[in-house]
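step=encode ok
step=design start
structure_in=
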């Protein structure tokens, strides 16, 4: 695909595309291919694959006093980055390699601090976990320099991304846009390729924040919107956004076009391919986002744009699933016809910042069911018990999953849900709960965790997603 018509592209490279020196070199060559054609390229990088999870475990180990485990794992991270730096041509005495060493030492001290205090606040966790991206950005600079490009790496904060103080799930502040133009405009005009550490920003007071798991996609779109880029390209280890997770459904197909709304639903309902909020910065400008395959750069991938693009006979575009979900059933006299109770339940969930995946209320109004990620369920139960009025009982069932179908073509179409339920029945899947999003872009059901893979394949086949669209 030609980039000739573009003047500015933001390119995001995920953990897999940064996993070792060879992958980083390949990623750099993709950025260089367009930079050499005169396109200004802003590169945004994730941590090397696995590093974010490792840093989270290290922080937890330090907090519980297991400094030996923390140090062992830190040594692996140090080795992995120093080895990659060497392979990418970084000399031990070069400024970039010295900087890497200093970053690793600061990380070690931060972890030791957690160990001494036995205390890990959301703020300290963000500081520690963002080191993954701060350490991978210099490696990308080395790789770009190895291809004779001039590069300059920056933290998310230094690139101008200012956020609120919501550690672990921070949101950008409006004044970021001007800061980003200030911080990156000069570099771009001087022919330098900025390499921005993804996933992170900083508060006005200078504390490091993170944008939520998978947040590098979000960093890329925040930068693209501020810089009025022509497009954002998210390079992945898949062809694009697929009709289902290709690890579960071998005949999943690439989706050519999706709307911002569709991609948000897909991400919300578990498609790990993009951050659920990634397209939100683009909604005003309509800047397109392309999900592209790093292994096959000329393949068009998936174009994500403002407008919905429907194929006749194909109301559903994709099937997604979220595993490890809890269902919380709220029953009791207090639920009977008392909308305030429902609103107080929602308030409690919202205050705790818990993702509410599904809600359903029985027609008798005597029962409300909520689907919540297992990881949030204990907090949710606690919050619900403290919030509600009346005589309510709460019952939690774990080991469930949410399966969703997504597509703009289902709006106003009869029979789509019925087709999904028939497919599930034929696959002997018991449906525990049903809900349709008010946007009419999705229908979701709660099922048993153990039945997710078979159910996904059955629904995928029922909507003809594994082959060419029906006429
Ligand atoms: N509908 C889907 N389309 C494409 N990929 C999906 C989908 N659902 C889940 N995935 C998984 O998401 C992965 C890509 O996301 P991720 O690894 O986070 O990307 P990144 O390269 O940005 O780190 C793929 O390897 C794939 O297994
Ligand atoms: N490293 C962060 C941010 C990210 O976006 O990663 P990836 O692009 O590898 O999904 C995470 O794991 O959440």
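sequence_out=
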């Amino acid at each position: 695909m030609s980039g000739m018509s573009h003047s500015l592209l933001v390119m995001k490279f995920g953990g897999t595309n940064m996993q070792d020196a060879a992958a980083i070199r390949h990623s750099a060559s993709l950025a260089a291919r367009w930079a050499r054609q005169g396109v200004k390229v802003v590169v945004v990088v994730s941590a090397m694959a696995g590093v974010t999870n490792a840093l989270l475990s290290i922080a937890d180990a330090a907090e519980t006093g297991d400094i030996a485990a923390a140090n062992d794992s830190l040594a692996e991270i140090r080795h992995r980055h120093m080895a990659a730096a060497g392979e990418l041509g970084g000399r031990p005495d070069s400024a970039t390699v010295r900087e890497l060493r200093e970053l690793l030492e600061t990380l070690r001290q931060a972890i030791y601090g957690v160990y001494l205090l036995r205390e890990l606040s959301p703020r300290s966790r963000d500081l520690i976990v963002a080191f993954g991206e701060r350490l991978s950005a210099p490696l990308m600079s080395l790789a770009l320099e190895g291809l004779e490009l001039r590069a300059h790496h920056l933290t998310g904060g230094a690139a101008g991304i200012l956020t609120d103080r919501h550690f672990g799930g921070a949101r950008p502040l409006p004044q970021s846009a001007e800061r980003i133009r200030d911080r990156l405009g000069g570099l771009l005009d001087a022919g330098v390729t900025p390499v921005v550490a993804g996933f992170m920003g900083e508060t006005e007071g200078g504390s490091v924040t993170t944008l939520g798991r998978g947040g590098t996609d979000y960093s890329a779109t925040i930068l693209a919107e501020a810089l009025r880029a022509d497009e954002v390209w998210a390079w992945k280890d898949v062809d694009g956004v697929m009709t289902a997770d290709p690890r579960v459904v071998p005949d999943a197909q690439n989706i050519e076009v999706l709307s911002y709304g569709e991609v948000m639903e897909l991400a919300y309902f578990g498609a790990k391919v993009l951050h659920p909020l990634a397209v939100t910065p683009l909604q005003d400008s309509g800047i397109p986002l392309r999900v592209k395959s790093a292994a096959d750069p000329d393949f068009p991938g998936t174009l994500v744009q403002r407008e919905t693009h429907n194929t006749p006979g194909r109301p559903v575009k994709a099937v997604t699933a979220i595993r490890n979900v809890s269902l919380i059933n709220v029953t009791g006299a207090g639920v009977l016809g008392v909308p305030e109770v429902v609103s107080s339940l929602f308030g409690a969930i919202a205050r705790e910042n818990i993702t509410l995946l599904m809600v359903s209320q029985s027609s008798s109004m005597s029962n409300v069911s909520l689907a919540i990620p297992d990881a949030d369920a204990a907090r949710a139960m606690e919050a619900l018990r403290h919030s509600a009025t009346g005589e309510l009982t709460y019952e939690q069932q774990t080991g469930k999953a949410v399966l969703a179908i997504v597509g703009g073509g289902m709006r106003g179409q009869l029979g789509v849900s019925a087709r999904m339920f028939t497919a599930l029945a034929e696959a002997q899947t018991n449906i525990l709960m049903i809900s349709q999003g008010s946007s009419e872009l999705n229908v979701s059901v709660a099922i048993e965790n153990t039945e997710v893979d078979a159910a996904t394949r059955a629904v995928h086949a029922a909507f003809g997603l594994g082959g060419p669209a029906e006429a």
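step=design ok
step=annotate ok -> Residues 14-17, 46, 214, 236-238, 241-242, 244-247, 271-273, 318 surround adenosine-5'-diphosphate (ligand 1) (CB under 6 Å).
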